[in-house]
Amino acid sequence: MSPRRRTSALLILIAVVAAVTLPWALLSARADLSFGPHEARYQITADSRLTVDFGPLGKLLVPADDYLPLGLGLTVDIGQIPVSGADEDDSHTGASERRSDRDSSDGSEQGAGGGAVDALGGDIASYASLFSAPQAQVNEVVDGLTTEILARWALAVCLISGVIVAMAFILGPVRLAGIGRAFVGKELIGIGLVTILVLASVGTAVLTRPKPLDADPAFDGTPLAGAQVTGRLGGVIDAAFTAVKDFSDDNDAFYDQVLENLRAKWTTRPQTGNWSDQGMVPRPGGDEDGLNADVSTFVFGSDLHCNIGMARVVGAVTRMSDADAYIDGGDVTMTGTSAENYCFDVLDDELPDKLPRMIVKGNHDSAETTNHARSQGWKVLDDTSATMSGVTFFGGPDPRRTVFGSGPELETDLTADQYAQRLNDEACASDFDIMLIHDARIGAPSLRSGCAQYSLSGHWHRRVGPETLGSGVRYVSSTTGGALANALTPGPLKMDAELSIVRVDNRTKRPIDVQIVTVSPDKTVTIEPWKTFPEPVPLVAQPPQTQPANEEE
Q: Where are the alpha helices (DSSP H) in 85-133?
């Protein structure tokens, strides 16, 4: 056989094997992802249904004809709600740090609280988040299953094709020719066998086709219209679904009005401000040189705490401000479990496509959170530097992990104070423009030493600055999610939520000024005048240190 014929035969073999193995890869693929607050396993089926299996409680059956082609369905096996962390280990956490975290008035331990009732409320909020913004969940499922299907398909094609080629090589051309002659004249038998197999498969699919669903009236007028509930779940679905739907409706109505107020307020927002760190201000009639100044605009948020309603506001502000990038000071989630990656995905989806984005881990996030962010194309500061729009940021993850009900624990072998000192040492050996750190207290030594000139942070849930500290300048953002202590963060706001627009002079890489966008619980939106960043103070000009370096400001 000529090389050309061998190549053609190999390509035909691969095509046939690919066609035969695709159904297997499609129907055997499994993806371990999340469903609301739960861990969940997803698997494609051939019953034209979305089946959400809650185990002993029963199942939720939803017609899938409008979502999946070719009569395909999807089964979701619901697992447990992950709870990370354990009781605080006194051998790992210093008493001074625990007292600072417990007694400080910065509101750093915000969110759903630690009680069982609060935890249940948090689960309802997670379901409502899923119901309000399902696209992030859909994207996660599609990506996870697609990856699994392609991996299984490629593996099957390679293995089967490899085995066939190896057998052909072992048998040799003479034996292969003999096998081929044995099948000559038996094409009709082969066609008949294939036809029988196809008809048997089709008949089996028809005979095992599930009965039509008995729609539950509780879902009328909702995206789940036509769904059926089985088992014990049917006895509580009306109350549970009503609670979730009411929460979702209230949340959507609240933030729809907030966005409308934001758009109205944006047209009259204060426009004056410095357009360079030298204080240049556009003339009232407009100054073409000033308006075209070399300035980068960053939208800065922190402590969103899974408030997907405010994620919509973040996306709107980044678009209206024509931001060059979005930077996040951490605490996108409430506990940092893998299921809460959904909260991050909603924020990611709300931001403009291809907008550069950066994050640093907060104490309510986890390594899982930042690993997921990195996989979505975010720049993650992990004791590293990264450049966006010509400005170099430096920072690192908060060493703590705060888990509701069990208090803070350490993800590293360093306390917050020890990590602050190590970060200072690394800052002194690094070349960067702005430090991005979750807790301002951890960045304070770097400002006092002069190794960092500017820092952006959050964690305290109250705004501070911009103000000088030591030899540098810090700005502490309040909570973008409106995270009030001992209250659920998702849903309509219970305290003011803030988002910052920071302008940086691209020539000197220094922050120029900041404008604060505040959303209040009564849905009003306030956009403050621009506040100028003060200049760093040379070490020789600093006043004597009057407070301990490890005391929270």
A: 95-103, 116-132
Query: Are residues 63 and 89 in contact, defined by beta-carbon separation less than 8 angstroms?
Result: no
Provide the β-strand partners of residue 273. none
Q: Give the sheet arrangement for strand 464-469, strand by strand.
A: 384-388, 391-395, 434-439, 454-458, 472-476, 464-469
Distance, CA of 452 to CA of 422 (rounded, Å)? 13
78: phi then psi, degrees, rounded to nearest 5: -80, 130
Q: Which helix (H) or strand (E) element contains residue 96?
A: helix 95-103
What's the rounded Cα separation, in Å, for the pair 469 and 448?
6
pLDDT digits (tens, 9 = 90+) for 490-507: 778 889 999 999 999 888
Find where tokens 């709300």 sit: 350
Q: Are 121 and 112 in contact (CB under 8 A)?
A: yes
Residue 376 φ/ψ region, left for φ over 0, alpha for ψ in the -120 to 50 degree band, beta for the rest: alpha
Distance CA 129, CA 316 (A): 18
Amino acid at 422: R
* Amino acid sitting at position 511: P
Q: Residue for token digits 């490899």?
A: 162
For tokens 């933030």, what's the residue?
Answer: 255
Other Cβ atoms closer than 10 A to 448 = 18
Strand partners, 510: 505
Q: Where are the beta strands (DSSP E) in 185-294?
A: 228-229
Classify 34 as helix, strand or coil: strand
pLDDT category at 302 given cuts 50, 70, 90 is very high
CA-CA distance, 35 to 320, in Å (whole number)? 32
Q: Which residues have C-beta within 8 Å of that of residue 367, sequence separation ≥ 6?
A: 361, 397, 411
pLDDT tens digits, one per residue of 362-397: 988 888 899 999 999 999 999 899 999 889 999 999
- Collapsing DSSP to helix, strand or coil, 463 comes out as coil
Rounded CA Rg of the chain: 29
Are 329 and 298 in contact by the 8 Å Cβ rule? The answer is no
> Who's near 341: CB < 8 A, 6+ residues apart?
34, 140, 333, 368, 369, 372
Tens digits of residue pLDDT in 233-247: 555 555 666 666 677
CB 141 within 8 A of CB 32: no
User: What is the SS3 assignment for 24?
Assistant: helix
Q: Is the pTM of this model over 0.70?
A: no
β-bridge partners, 159: none
Residue 518 is encoded by which pair of tokens? 């505040």
